[in-house]
Specification:
2 helices, elongated, two-stranded antiparallel ribbon, 4 strands
Length: 138
């Protein structure tokens, strides 16, 4: 594996964590959305990642790829709000299966993972720069 492969690996990690943060932001933005085009309340979304495998024998691999954006299958919350336009005959409204605390913890985790990838990218860049500096002096 060459030093330049590190750039691709870190870039894939940055892209994956950015998608994760965008998904979390969407979940938070829709925390009270009770009506979607598909019908029913908003369903929490979660990205599914996988490690990127080499294209063939002897080819570099590594990094992250996004396999899918999945819908969380956990049950919706039932909240008693008889005046709500989406309330059933008993006065209950189905609310999204989004928990703000969980989303904030996931956002912190994604942010730290993003920062770790930036650090790895900068370290690789510094190593290449130092190697070039050594080559110029020699």
């Amino acid at each position: 594996m060459g030093i330049f492969n590190n750039f691709g690996i870190s870039a894939s990690g940055l892209t994956a964590q950015r998608l994760r943060m965008d998904t979390i932001a969407s979940n938070i933005a829709n925390i009270e959305t009770t009506r979607t085009p598909e019908g029913g309340p908003y369903q929490r979304q979660v990205p599914l990642f996988s490690s990127r495998l080499p294209d063939g024998p002897g080819q570099p691999g590594g990094g992250v790829e996004v396999l899918a954006l999945l819908r969380d299958q956990s049950p919706f919350k039932r909240v008693y709000e008889p005046g709500h336009p989406d309330a059933d005959e008993e006065g209950y409204v189905l609310m999204p299966n989004v928990e703000l605390v969980k989303e904030m913890v996931d956002m912190i985790d994604a942010s730290r993972a993003y920062e770790a990838n930036v650090t790895a990218l900068n370290a690789s860049k510094d190593m290449v720069q130092r190697a070039l500096d050594i080559g110029r002096r020699g």
